[in-house]
Amino acid sequence: MDFFTGPDTRAAQAAFEVCTEFAEPWLRNHSLRAYSWAVAYGASAGITGYDDELLYVAALMHDLALTPFFDSHRIAFEEAGGQLAKVLAAGAGWDTARRERLNEVIVLHMRDDVPPEHDVEAHLLQIAVSADVSGRRLELFTPEFTEEVLGRYPRLGFAEKFLAQARDQATRKPDCAAAELMRSGWPDRVLTNKLD
After folding, report:
1. How many H-runs (helices) and E-runs (strands) does the chain carry?
2. Cα(93)–Cα(82) distance, rounded to whole angstroms?
3. Is the pLDDT of residue 112 over 80?
4. Are 102 and 88 in contact (CB under 8 A)?
């Protein structure tokens, strides 16, 4: 199974192009790693029946509202990112219900743990993003696979740059999920993530 190549669809191609154009390389690579971690975890955990296109588009779009182009000064980045993803999906011809699902997956990746039976795509994205950002559940992945992911999509100073973005979000939006994380031990986990 290929854990690195997303589906060959109009929406997936658009998400890749938008992410590549607007995200700095360290953030683009995080998004691509997120998809790889998610698919690999799904395979190892025997999770099937998820929507691969939805997962890929969510992974590529989930942090784009951290960029200056799409940052919102009023709402949390995951909510702004979910709305941005809906616009992209509308352009790709997705119906309203599918666009709402995309938004939901992106928003839920910043919430409390989502069990796979509640929302399989959000669960996969949460596992992936947590592993990549803070090292949570990295033991789910073999050292060989981890090395391959990092070889394809280097971190490029990810921890410090991502924390700077989270701090900025927390300062401007003190009630958002990023602010809650900044008040916890999460920043230390990000900086001590063994991926860096």
Report:
1. 10, 0
2. 16
3. no
4. no
